[in-house]
């Protein structure tokens, strides 16, 4: 075992079910074998959660909620603060694990752990700011106000591309709100879940907290279905594809549960003829090839003014030819592997469809057969926005170039997809900036000027519109999604006046 794996408490065989401080040993369960996409070799095994194990997790979470919700919110914040300190201690090995198991380069792995640390810091502050409003009552000697209460066990279903950060966005905010948390990570990155749970378990143990505050289950689709159909879990926060999100949304809605859905993106950058092209190029390349194009905020479409189109295309093609592709733990690498062979095949099929629909693959797209692992060259394609393949998100490093002549046309192209997550415009023209950010501009949940589509920071609410799901996480007032609102009225007088002046004498 590599040193960074053992330092995180990982072994050749690991249990994937935990009620917080302890793992449920069940080696009769089916095992998931984790492979590194860097060379396809086996890392370790993780045993899936059985239905019996799941029931134990649910009962433990429900029982812990009775205690956890009664702790003052700042005390809950103190526990989250300590989790942030532990993450600082384990930042290097956990960042390496994220890189090794998922395939993103080491700097991005470290960045993902830093996001966890940042959300812990944010949540600690938020634990003292769970504010409600007071309102003036129309009735004399009455006081009216609202307050917020925790929901209970909250379910978090996260995806492989951010195997630790997105969990923490939800878990740390949900926890300071008084909820317990049950996490099902991706079956493609199960070791990341076990490692994070080991880190959190240290804090729970040191504070003598009960089982069930932070729990982990491991498995594929069936485990997710247990959660989405379970009335004992009032909120499901799910990150993944649009088809997955639609299924989760329908299932949870059928039992009148709550959802936070963070689904696909088809993110575009508009490049004005008045853009700072040097700045834009750096943002484009990072957004398009970072994490090998496997972010929900990856730059998929580049909508370029005709006056700078050829110049920008030539610059990007030259840069793409020199991008270092290889081992994600090598400090010189800029692009690591795709997660698995299915992702490689999906990219190749998308490139074929580009050509079938009349587009042109300008450069890249090759599978690097001479390298062990799932490596491809990032691709640039010239397309029309209405192509079917362009309308769908391909989770791979494919950048589509689209030409425009007038700003209204650019905005129509930009908004002409079903997804609505992240967006950007590069321009030094103030009127163009304001138009892009106005109600007649970008229809996405995130809209940026002179920065790229990826790299959202903690503090701003993260999420999108349309088929991206409409959920919000990790900042602003996103904490309200993890709580239930209650309006309270107190009559401190000696009469019983009714609202709206209604007379009702008995």
From TrEMBL:
UniProt xrefs under Pfam families = Aldedh
Give the species this sequence originates from. Answer: Rhodohalobacter barkolensis
Cited Gene3D superfamilies: Aldehyde Dehydrogenase, Chain A, domain 1 (3.40.605.10), Aldehyde Dehydrogenase, Chain A, domain 2 (3.40.309.10)
Kindly report, in one word, the top-level EC class recorded for this enzyme: oxidoreductase
Keywords from the UniProt entry: NAD, Oxidoreductase
According to its UniProt record, the EC number is 1.2.1.3
Which residues are catalytic?
262
> Care to name a GO molecular-function term for this sequence?
aldehyde dehydrogenase (NAD+) activity
Record protein name field:
aldehyde dehydrogenase (NAD(+))
The Aldehyde dehydrogenase domain covers 24-487
Alphabetical list of CDD domains matching this protein: ALDH_F7_AASADH
Location of region: Disordered? 1-21
Q: What is the lineage of its organism?
A: Bacteria, Pseudomonadati, Balneolota, Balneolia, Balneolales
Similarity comment: family membership: Belongs to the aldehyde dehydrogenase family.
The annotated subunit structure for this chain is: Homotetramer.
InterPro entries recorded: Ald_DH/histidinol_DH (IPR016161), Ald_DH_C (IPR016163), Ald_DH_CS_GLU (IPR029510), Ald_DH_N (IPR016162), Aldehyde_DH_dom (IPR015590), ALDH7A1-like (IPR044638)
């Amino acid at each position: 075992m590599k040193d960074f794996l053992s330092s995180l408490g990982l072994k050749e065989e690991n249990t994937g079910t935990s009620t917080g401080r302890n793992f449920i040993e069940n080696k009769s369960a089916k095992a998931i074998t984790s492979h590194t996409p860097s060379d396809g070799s086996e890392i370790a095994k993780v045993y899936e959660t059985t239905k019996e194990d799941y029931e134990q997790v649910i009962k433990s979470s429900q029982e812990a909620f009775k205690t956890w919700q009664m702790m003052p919110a700042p005390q809950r914040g103190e526990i989250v603060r300590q989790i942030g300190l532990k993450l600082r201690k384990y930042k290097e090995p956990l960042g390496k694990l994220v890189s090794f198991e998922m395939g993103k380069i080491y700097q991005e792995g470290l960045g993902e752990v830093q996001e966890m640390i940042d959300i812990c810091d944010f949540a600690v502050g938020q634990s003292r700011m769970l504010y409600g409003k007071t309102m003036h009552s129309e009735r004399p000697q009455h006081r009216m106000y609202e307050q917020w209460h925790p929901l209970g066990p909250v379910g978090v279903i996260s995806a492989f591309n951010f195997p630790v950060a997105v969990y923490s966005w939800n878990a740390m905010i949900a926890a300071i709100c008084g909820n317990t948390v049950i996490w099902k990570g991706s079956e493609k990155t199960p070791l990341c879940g076990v490692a994070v749970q080991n880190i959190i378990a240290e804090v729970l143990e040191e504070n003598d907290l009960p089982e069930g505050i932070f729990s982990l289950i491991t498995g594929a689709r069936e485990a997710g279905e247990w959660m989405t159909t379970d009335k004992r879990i009032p909120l499901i926060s799910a990150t993944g594809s649009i088809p997955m999100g639609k299924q989760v949304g329908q299932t949870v809605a059928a039992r009148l549960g709550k959802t936070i859905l963070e689904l696909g993106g088809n993110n575009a950058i508009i490049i004005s003829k008045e853009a700072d092209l040097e700045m834009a190029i750096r943002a484009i390349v990072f957004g398009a090839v970072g994490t090998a194009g496997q972010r929900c905020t990856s730059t998929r479409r580049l909508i370029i003014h005709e006056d700078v189109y050829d110049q920008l295309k030539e610059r990007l093609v030259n840069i793409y030819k020199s991008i270092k592709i290889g081992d994600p733990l090598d400090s010189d690498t800029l692009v690591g592997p795709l997660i698995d062979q299915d992702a490689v095949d999906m990219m190749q099929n998308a490139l074929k469809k580009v050509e079938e629909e009349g587009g042109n693959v300008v450069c890249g797209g090759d599978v690097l057969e001479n390298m062990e692992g799932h490596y491809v060259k990032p691709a640039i394609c010239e397309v029309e926005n209405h192509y079917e393949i362009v309308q769908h998100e391909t989770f791979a490093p494919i950048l589509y170039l689209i030409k425009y002549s007038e700003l209204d046309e650019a905005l129509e192209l930009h908004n002409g997809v079903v997804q609505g997550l992240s967006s950007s415009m590069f321009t030094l023209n103030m009127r163009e900036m304001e138009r892009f950010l106005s109600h007649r501009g970008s229809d996405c949940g995130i809209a940026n000027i002179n920065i790229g589509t990826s790299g959202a920071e903690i503090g701003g609410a993260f999420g999108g519109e349309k088929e991206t799901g409409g959920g919000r996480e990790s900042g602003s007032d996103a904490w309200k999604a993890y709580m239930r609102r209650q309006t309270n009225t107190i009559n401190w007088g000696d009469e019983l006046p009714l609202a709206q002046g209604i007379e009702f004498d008995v």
